[in-house]
Amino acid sequence: MQMEKATFGAGCFWGVEETFRNLKGVRSTAVGYAGGIKENPTYEDVCTDRTGHAEVVEVEFDPSQISYDELLDVFWSNHNPATLNRQGPDVGTQYRSAIFYHSPEQEATAMASKERLEKSGRFNRPVVTQIEAAPKFWRAEEYHQRYLQKRGQSHCAI
Question: How far apart are CA 143 and CA 140, in angstroms?
């Protein structure tokens, strides 16, 4: 079976990774940085809010078990896509809501999904999620991979 990739930015990548890692059909996840200008960024670099990178999770999934649309539903329901450059207490462009698509099909699906969400009236403010072609993915430092799982936690404490 041909695996596909999906890349999402939805705030602090620790909790986002844990959410996707536990879905049936997801083969692997990796946290990292994407969408910025700095080569080989470190966590410290990204935290300066000057690299342009977002904290993202790259998801490898089996489309015969879980669809890209289903992944988008999980993405939308696990963060607030109507807050610009912020999720909860985390503020900065690295926490922006972003979908980085890997194919024209993913782009079309993501656009349609965002439109449905906007029309649903679930948020009383505009959905500010960026939808753009997947740039180079920079894998985060090893201590960030499966961060919550390593600590026996299922979500970030706010």
Answer: 8
Q: 91-129: per-residue pLDDT in tens?
A: 999 999 999 999 999 999 999 999 999 999 999 899 999
Superfamily designation of domain 4-150: Peptide methionine sulphoxide reductase MsrA (3.30.1060.10)
* Ramachandran angles phi, psi of 97, nearest 5°: -85, 120
The residues that are catalytic are 12
Judge whether 137 and 68 are in contact, CB under 8 Å. Answer: no
- Give the residue from 18, 39, 37 showing the smallest Cα distance to 29: 18
Q: From CA 82, how far away is CA 54, in angstroms rounded? A: 16
Domain ranges of the chain: 4-150
Which residue matches tokens 């935290």?
A: 47
For 114-152, b where at least 16 C-beta lie within 10 A, e where not — what string?
Answer: beebeeeeeeeeebbbeeeebbebbebeeebbbbbeeee
Distance CA 48, CA 155 (A): 24
Taking the model in full, what pTM does it have?
0.95
What is the DSSP annotation of 83-125?
A: STTEETTEESGGG-EEEEESSHHHHHHHHHHHHHHHHHT-SSS
